[in-house]
Amino acid sequence: MSLALTLLAVCPLASASERLGLVASAESTQFVQQRGQFQLHTLLTEQRHPKTWNLSDVAAADPAQALSQLLSVDEDVAIALAALADDPQRMAALQAASAAVQGALRDGHRIYFYGTGSTGRLAETLESGLWRPFWHRLQADPVWPQLAGRLPPALGERVRGQITGGDRALISSLEGFEDLPLIGALQLRDDGIGAGDVVFAVTEGGETSAVIGTALAAADQRGPGTDRVWFVYNNPDAVLRPFERSQRVLDDARIGKIALPTGPQAITGSTRMQATTTSLYVLGLVLEDALRALLLPQLAPADAQRLGLDSRDTLATRLRGFARLQQAVAAHAPQLARWTQREAQAYADGHHATYLAGQALMPVFVDVTERAPTFRLAPLDRTDTAPPASWIRVWAPVDTPQAAWETLLQRPFQGLEAARYRPAFEQVDDPALRQTALRSLERAGGEQQALYDLSWSADNRQRLPPQPGDLGVLLRYADEPLDTLARQWWQTFDRAGAGVLTVTVGQPRDGSQSVPVPAGAGPDIVLDLPQGNDPLGLDRTLALKMALNAHSTAVMARLGRTVGNTMTAVQPGNLKLIGRATYLIQAHVNPVLESARWRQRHGATAALSYAEANALLFEAIARRAVLPETGKLPEVELAIVAALERLDSGNPLDWPGAAQQLRDHGLNGYLRGWADAAQPQAPPAAAVDNGQSR
């Protein structure tokens, strides 16, 4: 049993005790007693990974070593994918999914990927970052005129990726939506997905209500049969079955299952990392496999080779090939460390980073937007945000907001039309969920597109000019031309005295030399990747994703935004995150109570129970809203310090005092003051369970 599960096992649910001097609020009592289905601390993806146990300390001392730690966790993905390739039963499911995609495309139907949060961005990456760009390249290829008439019509338009809440949710979370199964069903209908289409409902945890709603609604459309609706998830069935909504899908014979457990994440619960990497790669390979089946019979060998299509590639060989890709990215940790140090220093000094990306915009945009909820940062600024709050900007080398959205999505922006969703939301039984969802609906419409400018526009140049000490990063694929605007952007940052660097991924598709970066570009990070067929650009997209995930996590760990490998800055904005925040309070308080120093001072002390931790969390939420002393400090961190100070001194809970401790020392420094309790002992790396044996 993992340390986290052991910790929970000895802390049964109970009422908040007198020792804290705290009576649980009605909200806390309701969560503990009635929201057991959202207390997800038993999930494999919510456990701590031993390889990154002391990440915050390592990142502060040696960013290259921190990056190596983070990238080494992707070895779990390689192991899991190799095991998948060797498992006849699970491979049969992937082959059936590929066959279903092929059949649907041949018959004029659509492929629909649906997810929430990270898996929603995964879904949109499959459409806008991989599928649509391939067809744009193919239509510009010399073979297209003779090929077009032999293919089913409009294939480039037949893959749709959808995120819960629509395209506005790509920027930041629309709270309340993910907890509602009905929104998944409503979006399925709104997107015009019918019985002949193939649906992939993708959830990292395997318990996301909105995604489950999509899977069940799609199954209701189709009736018997398991080849047109697929449930894709990253936890073992055994740990999901206690959750009724998950069990319902797992037991539904109408829904095919693609189980992809890899183990704990590099940052505890941060499924934007290994879980999403795994699902994106596997689903990208399903699309790639279908593409080979559709196109190879129509192409001469030379044309197929130029497009990266080879009959010798199979789902199994490509799954096994991930290991080489992972090793190649991990080998660049020393190079990436230069970038990590410079960006962390820019933020520490009160400056900003700006990323510019064209063809690589989707993976860059996804990583940037996912930093905000993971590390409690301001989301990307709207055009009317004054003064700017976000530490980072991400822009495309185009000069209008409309062109930037088209660069990102490769199609028109699509929001939720409130009139179609409001009547159903108004019928939600839970008052809190109902009001939260209705508020979010006001920020989900198509008009939201105009509030965000992701371009190198005249307005952005005037409103957000680079300053000395800022950092500009150009991210590009090796065969990507540098247009005039990209060069102007580079020169503007250079002349302003901002730091500049380039990150180049992969090799040109045709084997020619890479397009040179601007003269005087300075440090150039080049991610050399293994040579191989990559028709959709899946490998280079995954390589950039893994590098960005590790880099951004190391930056934030270096700045004290993690404690060990836990995200104590988490914002408890939905039911799942309230559960995670509660567990994190326990996970950091109880090792202190068990430490030698604490025992010398107080003797044996009962562990903090789940109910006590949850009561502290809701009290911290309330106090943070009204006490200016707490400022922007995270609720979890306030609760940890307030609880330990109360239990140590016997004085009443002192929220301003807890805030002052955090301002003076940070949570890492405060816990370090308890000596051996600063970090509980990590289990050996060999003890990591990826769930394959269950």
UniProtKB/TrEMBL annotation:
GO terms for molecular function: carbohydrate binding; enzyme binding; enzyme inhibitor activity; fructose-6-phosphate binding. GO terms for biological process: carbohydrate derivative metabolic process; glucose homeostasis; response to fructose. Residues 101-301 form the SIS domain. One of its GO terms (cellular component) is cytosol. Keywords: Carbohydrate metabolism, Signal. SUPFAM superfamilies: SIS domain. Gene3D superfamilies: Glucose-6-phosphate isomerase like protein, domain 1. This is SIS domain-containing protein.
